[in-house]
Sequence to fold (238 residues):
Amino acid sequence: MRAEAIIFDVDGTLAETEEIHRLAFNETFTHFGLDWYWNRPLYRQLLDITGGKERIRAFVANHRAPDGPRALEQVAEMHAAKTEIYTQLVAEGAARLRPGVLRLITEAKDKGVRLAIATTTSLPNVEALLQAAFGMPSSSIFEVIGAGDIVAAKKPAPDIYRHVLDELRMPTFACIAIEDSRNGLDSARAAGLPTLVTPSIYTSHQSFPGALAVVPDLDTPPVSLDTIAKWRAADAGW
Fold:
């Protein structure tokens, strides 16, 4: 059965954006006078925590961060500043869509498949990426965008997917999710969604039990609506 809607994650799924987020965090820490630096191995660990504000709090709690108490009082301001830095970097061309993303989205639009987003990243981050990648507002491409703090419990909780499904007014069996991380997979699966995983540079070490399929990207092999339909037909759980 062909999917009637595709729900995309954003960071690591639509584009390899996590490295841009890491750079934006580090620049923000400098602006706030914090002697913090998140290198790639550390950031890979911190990505187990979804949400930028939550990631800062986890770093303070678990890594004996210098000036931790002061930073906790400024989490909201720091996250807002980081978002400004990130969106500027994206607007300047720092992020590109992953292979096959544009092709699959174009096919879906041409064949009347509805498109949505379910992400823990903030709405300005989503809008900046989609404007830079497509040259048009996000609402012109995606019918529903669930982002940021629109739900209280972030991935791996299923809340953001349930919110998007409610907005689409569609049953889970008619949809498919596309994710790049274990947290995202667990979130989508807990909401009842068959889930395709395309691991990113920061999640390639993770395992993905229960995924409909795991492929390097949407071009390896070329993933189409027919490909997804075949995977769904072959999956005994769906």
